[in-house]
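Exercise 7.
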Amino acid sequence: MGQTLDNKGDGDMATWLNDYKAYKEALSHEFEGGAVAIGKVLQYQELLYRIDVLETCQMLCKTAPVTMDMKSLVAHYQLVDAYVQSLSKERRIGIPPDEKLKASRQTSAAALESTVADCRKRFSSFRAENEQMYKRSISTLLNTVLPVWLQLRNTYTPITK
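Solution. The predicted structure, written as tokens, is:
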């Protein structure tokens, strides 16, 4: 199996998004001819899903309030928290697993759940020390969760060139 697009070492949200969009464009040309192998269809569907998740995370970072008003921060954080929680539970479809892959999925799922729980714990007593702190903290949270989420996604549908 080839190297996954998001497993190059020092990726970030913007890099993954650009790589996925470029690969989506390349794959979309294959679909113009009609019949495409089911593996490519599954990979394309996964690309669309990952692009959506990354764009949503970017939007959540961009719309993070720049304030110390806890009411505004709590409202935004509830959106972020609900979204991150859903990432750890949804789209558990992919290649049929053997015992090794089942174990890898379980390990990756546990790592994601642990990462999300740690982030939730850190935010349970969050207090902004300045107006920029929440925005930076949300960006850090999402950039902490996303690599672990991608590890889990790669156990279901790896995106390889």
